[in-house]
Specification:
The chain is built from 3 helices and 16 strands. Helices cover 23% and strands 50% of the residues. It is α+β, with helices and mostly antiparallel strands.
């Protein structure tokens, strides 16, 4: 009997000594997350974050909203508005011009190192005609269309209007710093800065003329809108303007803003 008791005590002692080591070996595998688990959790937290920003750019004042797609990418959409007037002279005619840029844009942002730096591709859409102009030429004032001289009829002054348009949709390529949707949980504010270009193609000018034109002051006058020779010279003037501005195929994008992540 005494031998059996000693054997039982010895067995229990061995079990007590070995149990902590068995527990220690099984706990890490079950209780501690692996790197893959941590990465998966981080990526899940990044999806669906939303931020918004106000900004000032070469396209005017505006705002944008961004949504995180993955740990390194966002989808961003915004709008811009700028409008101002100025006068200018062209071939003896003084025009009242209006610049009216109303644009919408969408970008896909990639953060290569999941930090502040980003590269983006997108598209910008012109919602209005960017440049319009109109003029009423005082009676007996000289001007020219297509290098042909005319005079405005005092009884029915010559009127000219025109517009300059770009391709309605313009691809964009930009790079910048700052993320409207910071990946850090504790960070909410950002100052996004962006640089790039919009490829809007060669501008296209359209001219329309009404009223009457004269060959000389008080001389032979005719309706500018219906006379085929006058209209041919108007088209020549239009083509000349298009040649003068054909180089302007891209528009610079420079933007700075202030963002907040919700």
């Amino acid at each position: 009997m005494k031998g059996r008791v000693c054997h039982f005590v010895f067995t229990c002692s061995l079990f007590a000594i070995s149990w902590p080591s068995v527990f220690a070996q099984s706990t890490p595998a079950d209780a501690q997350p692996t790197n893959a688990t941590k990465t998966s959790a981080l990526s899940t937290e990044d999806i669906g974050g939303v931020g918004a920003a106000v900004r000032l750019s070469t396209y005017g004042g505006g705002g944008e909203v961004a949504v995180s797609v993955t740990h390194r990418t966002n989808v961003r959409a915004g709008f811009n508005i700028i409008s101002y007037s100025r006068g200018f002279d062209k071939d003896g005619i003084h025009y009242s011009g209006q610049v009216d840029l109303k644009t919408f844009e969408v970008h896909y942002d990639i953060y290569p190192w999941a930090k502040s730096f980003r590269v983006s591709g997108g598209v910008l859409v012109y919602a209005t005609d960017p440049v319009t102009a109109s003029a009423v030429v005082p009676g007996n004032q000289s001007f020219s269309f297509g290098d042909v001289a005319y005079y405005s009829d005092p009884a029915n002054p010559t009127r000219s209007s025109g517009k300059i348009v770009f391709n309605r949709a313009a691809p964009t390529v930009t790079f910048g710093f700052g993320n409207i949707v910071p990946r850090s949980k504790s960070k909410h504010f950002s100052v996004p800065v962006e640089f790039g270009i919009a490829f809007h193609g060669s501008p296209k000018t359209t001219l329309a003329v009404s009223g009457s034109v004269c060959d000389s002051p008080g001389g032979n006058c005719r309706n500018a809108a219906s006379d085929p020779i006058v209209q041919s010279n108007v088209i020549s003037e239009q083509n000349k303007i298009n040649d003068d501005i054909s180089f302007f195929k891209v528009y610079p994008i420079i933007s700075v803003g202030f963002g907040y992540k919700f």
